[in-house]
Structure to design on (254 residues):
């Protein structure tokens, strides 16, 4: 068993002016673990992803990766250490063929360091990565201009960009948003495979039913605070959690 957490988040907080986006978040993540992060819109989930990957600077608190503090590092240094993310709002190079989007990751200092300068054929690696996330090998999608691809492919591409960095920790922000149930169902085994490879995965997700099929544990964020942390079943049985979601439902559409 792997008892030592790969990631330790402690007292992590972020204020934007007067808005407390995240307050005093603490949790641990282990190798081979899929941790779900759920909560109503605006509760602070993406802020948590931004803080861990240092796209945003914390107002307070710490993040330790393999025992080492990383919250003071710039984003590229965090990525280089082995923490990769996907974005809720995908931002590919729309003018390029899909597989060329992976070239940035494949030229990163992390991959360079891991491979000692021996990259092999990067185009071939990019095509392999796309196949890994569900682009069919002999279909033309990998070569198509990215802007012409449907949302399902853009999300798969986003995942491939993160996998290309060979990360130890992945922070995945609402990968399933906008996808059909069939698409989500076909992506779930890909995430499970990443876990089996030894990665630790934080999965921010609104699609609870699908998330709960693969998450080992889940934390619930409400108004910037973690209000529950436990198994999917235990957390959903929690009255505070039910009230948070009921409140969100009542306010939906307002
Ligand atoms: N860059 C920012 N500037 C100001 N407020 C922000 C910024 N990012 C997020 N917020 C605010 O922080 C809160 C949490 O947002 P976010 O983390 O995006 O929530 P979620 O991902 O759970 O929907 C919201 O009130 C949002 O408006
Ligand atoms: Mg978000």
């Amino acid at each position: 068993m792997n008892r030592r957490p790969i990631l330790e988040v402690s007292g992590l907080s972020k204020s934007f002016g007067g808005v407390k986006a995240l307050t005093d978040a603490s949790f641990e993540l282990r190798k081979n673990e899929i941790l779900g992060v759920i909560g109503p819109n605006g509760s602070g989930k993406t802020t948590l992803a931004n803080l861990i990957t240092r796209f945003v600077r914390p107002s307070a608190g710490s993040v330790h990766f393999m025992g080492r503090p990383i919250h003071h590092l710039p984003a590229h240094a965090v990525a280089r250490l082995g923490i990769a993310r996907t974005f809720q709002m995908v931002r590919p190079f729309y003018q390029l063929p899909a597989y060329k989007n992976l070239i940035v990751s494949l030229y990163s200092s992390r991959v360079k360091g891991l491979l000692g300068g021996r990259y092999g054929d990067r185009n071939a690696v990019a095509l392999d990565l796309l196949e890994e996330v569900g682009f069919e090998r002999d279909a033309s999608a990998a070569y198509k201009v990215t802007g012409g691809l449907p949302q399902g492919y853009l999300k798969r591409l986003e995942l491939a960009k993160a996998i290309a960095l060979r990360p130890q920790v992945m922070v995945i922000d609402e990968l399933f948003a906008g996808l059909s149930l069939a698409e989500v169902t076909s992506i779930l085994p890909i995430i499970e495979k990443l876990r089996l490879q030894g990665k630790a995965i934080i999965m921010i997700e609104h699609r609870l039913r699908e998330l709960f099929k693969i998450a080992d544990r889940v934390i619930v964020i409400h108004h910037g605070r973690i209000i529950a942390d436990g198994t999917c079943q235990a957390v959903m049985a929690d009255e505070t959690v039910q009230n948070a979601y009921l409140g969100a439902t009542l306010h939906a559409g307002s």
Notes: The mean pLDDT is 92. The chain has ten helices and ten strands. The first strand starts at residue 7 and ends at 16.
